[in-house]
Write a structure and sequence with these properties.
Radius of gyration: 18 Å
Structural class: alpha/beta
Strand content: 5-15%
Number of strands: 8
Order of helices and strands: EHEHEHEHEHEHHHHEEH
Helix content: 40-55%
Amino acid sequence: MGWTAQDIPDQGGRTAVVTGANSGLGYVTARELARKGARVVLACRDGARGRDAVERLRGEVPGARVELGRLDLGDLASVREFAARPPYDRLDLLVNNAGVMAVPYGTTADGFERQFGTNHLGHFALTGLLLPALLATPGARIVTVSSFMHVLANIDPRDLNSERHYRRWTAYARSKTANLLFTHELCRRLAARGSGVVAAAAHPGYAATNLQTAGPRAEGRRGAERMMELGNRVFAQPAEAGALPSLYAATAPGVRPDSFWGPSFAMWRGSPAPSRRAPWTLNDEAAARLWAASERLTGVPYDALRA
């Protein structure tokens, strides 16, 4: 039998921030960390849904130390406000989990294409703003959730915001490639600084969450929505299993920087295992270019990692 949530080491004394923790993978990740004793901040865009999640989690894990943090990754002002008023005095773990998938073309509050802006730029800014707290905590980790679908597309440095041409699945794949390039460059910079912070990435395989149906529902494509629902029921693994690679990257001993964890069977389902990744996600030059562009677009310089 492979690694399960029961194998998570004791998390007593640790503090974690999990983005998008009101449902799906984020909720399971937050719940299992809390079950093992961590203090967990559920960083959620929707306050009402976030409060419901906190109450549900406390019901499932009596005595859990959990609280809500208001965070909209599609609004850099919200990201800055969250980071400026942390509801904790230390930070051991940041799980960059929230995301949007294959949604109709739209822009964030700051004018970025929605998938690139939310999935990558929002988390890039959040990580940079929280980095001083992570650097000050021995054994801290940063886990960014990508997708096996990153293999469908490399980023286009000439069109990061899909202004020339937009295809929803291509834009999604590019944003997930950006997650991996970000982790790659972050690890290089952490190592150059001599930091013990470990940054890794994970993906859930095909996990049944509301992420798949959000795009079709937003466009009123009821047929496509039903197809996604059917796929979730027939082919997907439950969110409890889909969250395991993130939990492994966040807590298991010996996780190496820039490692990528996913389901063991064909990147689809099963217990956590090292996952294959597209070669372009390990390109040093591309990662450095994306980093520079991300600092410029978000206005969040990683001063703590500068020589």
